[in-house]
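Most newcomers find our protein records easier to grasp once they have seen one. There is nothing in a record beyond a sequence line and a structure line. Getting from the letters to the tokens is the skill we practise here. An example says more than a description, so a record of this kind follows:
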Amino acid sequence: LINATREFMRADDEEEMPLLDAFLAHAALEAGENQGDQWQDCVQLMTLHSAKGLEFPIVFMVGMEEGLFPGQKSSDDPLRLAEERRLCYVGMTRARKTLYLLYTESRYLYGQEMHPRPSRFLSELPIERVHQVRSQQNMAAAGLTALASRTQSADDTGFRTGQQVMHQKFGQGVIIDTEGNGSHARVHVNFKQAGSKWLVLAYAKLETL
């Protein structure tokens, strides 16, 4: 912001405008679709809010991690979570041809190394529409292995990620995560019709397909 104000020069047709108004008008024009010419090979960086109404051949959405998107304060607030989900949809539909959804398995943030979980919004996508690409094959799975159609040995829950299951109420789905053991064991299932749900195995009565 400081560099932008230093380099700002008021145009001839803005002489009558207050200096602050002229700067804000210039900043607005330099944002979004006006950053690059139509056929210029460039990357335009913007927030999801500023991308509304725009379209691009290729879109990269970065930071698709729990705590970032959705934010930490939204995780336990249904209204805020729903708003962030709508914002995620806005970002995804900006892409005409190709959409990249990026998350990291390790992030250095606020002086600490963190290992975030992939955003829950990723697990709500149709698996058949997603192709996962990993930078290193020997890196630990980060909870989204179902999108890569990976198979794992069954853990203490008796189920594995990527396994097809059937629920009496929610129908057919795919296990995308498991948690706990014994009577407290849970599975995270992405159902074709009902969406993503955590189920306690002691009551879910899931059938394997």
User: Anything to note?
Assistant: Strands lie at 56-61, 95-101, 107-109, 112-114, 164-167, 171-179, 186-191, 195-200, 207-208. The first helix runs from residue 2 to 7. Confidence is low (pLDDT under 50) at residues 137-155. The two ends are 56 Å apart (CA to CA).
